[in-house]
Every structure is written in C-alpha cells, then in structure tokens.
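To the structural biology subgroup,

Please find below the input and predicted structure for Cell division protein FtsX, which we are adding to the shared reference set this quarter. The sequence is reproduced verbatim from the submission form. If anyone notices a discrepancy with their own records, reply to this email rather than editing the shared folder directly, so we keep one authoritative version.
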Amino acid sequence: MHRLLHMLGETFTSLRRNVAMVSALILVTFISLTFVGAAALMQTQVDEMTDDFHEQLEVSVFLCTEGSPASACPAGAVTDDQREAVEQSLEEGAAAQYVDSYRYESQDQALENFLDQRGQDADSSSVEAADMPESFRILLVDPEQYEVVTELFASALGVESVADQQEILDQVFGILNGMTMVALIIAAVMIVCAVLLVSTTIRLSAFARRRETGIKRLVGASKSMIRLPFIFEGALAALIGALLACAATWVIAEFVLGQWLAQQVPGISFIDSSASWLIMPMLILIALVLAVLASWLTVRRYLRV
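Predicted structure (tokenized):
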C-alpha cells in the first residue's frame, strides 16, 4: 500500500510539472472519444429508427385507372373481378401468409389524403378523384419479406404498380450510416494523435526525471517501481479525457437527441441519455487500454532501468 501511494504521489507531481502536455493529452483524448461516442449514439439511433420504420413499413398495391399507361395496364381500368382477386390473395391466397393487416383506399380517399398532404394549392386544385389510383396498403408480418409481396402483385391483372418505402428508407439510412462512418474516421485519426501524444508526454516526463530515475536505480528500486508512475501518468490523463467524453456523450444523447431533435421531428422515436450509459464503459476502456499500452511501450523503449 505504501509503495502504491508513493507511486501515485510521483504521478501527481509529474502531472503538475507537465501541465501543458497533460492538458493537451486530456483535450485530444476528450475530442477523439467524443467522436467515438457520437458515432456510437448515431448507430444506436439508426438501429432504433430501422426497427420502428420496419414495423410501419407499408407495401402499396396501386390499381389501374383510365389514365394508367398502356404498358402497365393494357386492359384499362381495374375491374371489380380483378380488385376482388387482389383482395382474395391478401386474405386467403399466396400473399396471406405475409400479410399482418391491410386496408383499401378508394379514389376519393386517395384524393383526400393527397390534398391533406399538398394543400389546396394551384397544382392540386385541378386534380380529381378519377386521377387518383385505388390501392391496397399492406402491413407485413415480417417487413423483410416486402420483396416477395412485391413480386406476387407486380404482374397481377388490374395492378398498375407496387411500391414500398424501403428504397427511401435505404437512402435515409445510407446517409446516416455515412455520417457514422465519417465520425468514426475522425475519431480514429484523433485516437492516433492521442496515442502519439501519450508517447511524447511520457518521453518528456522520463527525460525530465532522468536524475530521479538514476537515483532509484542506485538504491535498488525494481523496474515496476520505476516504470509504473509513468504508466499511471498516461492512464490518469487519458481517464480524465474519457470522463469528459462520457459527459459530452450524455449531453448529446439527452439534450440534442432526446429533447431538441425529438421536438423538431415528432414523428420519429429518438434515443435518450439511457443509451449513453451503455457507451460510457466502452469509452473509458478504450482510453485506459490505449494509454496504458502506449505508456508501457514508451517507457520500455526509452526508459533504461
């Protein structure tokens, strides 16, 4: 216990002597791990949104109208028999096993929904119910099976087209995943800088204390007694930076995602600070492992004992 307290005392003394370098190390560690935390939060948010959107993913089967292109609807508008055949397939036919629920949207309902979304502007005021397609809006048991359902109805009589939201979602998630990757790349660069700064700080500290190290050798101090204070120095500075990054991660999750974005985009379920608590141990572990490893390699190479 006495040895440990002595080594910790040396560590704090060295930290006071190298305030500028230690402060830079803390700052770089803080910034790099904040990027790691932000990337982890972003990926958690993407996973949450993916689950939510997949549960609400609709497949829309649009039926032929008088204005449908001949290539898609050579027989013209959908007939009652064709409409009933599509509904029969949804209830008892080949598609029934994939369908959780469905609803029929008439031309009048389609026009009403269109006007609600677009408003009574100059472009929409000339649109009539006959211009809007009837459709079946389908929720799937397994959203991953949307391609199977699309194929089942794509060539059915009376069906003009089948659309799903997956393509739009893929684009959105592609952008979010790209932002996550950018954050990780920046974090990786900053972590490399932090490791190099740890090495430089320990080298300077070892050089400044070379006389003390020589005295310790003469009085028979063990290698661990000489080396551990330097390792503690790098680990402690990195730990402080990691704790600051944990605080920043909590702020991002609680205030940026959990409150501000949740108010700006009410239709999406955002994560909150509870997600950050799962990320914080990872940030601390990364900081300690990298700092201890960098410090140990540095003292082993540059500190002759």
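Summary notes: The beta strands are 58-63, 99-105, 135-140, 159-164. The longest helix spans residues 166-208.

Regards,
Lab coordination
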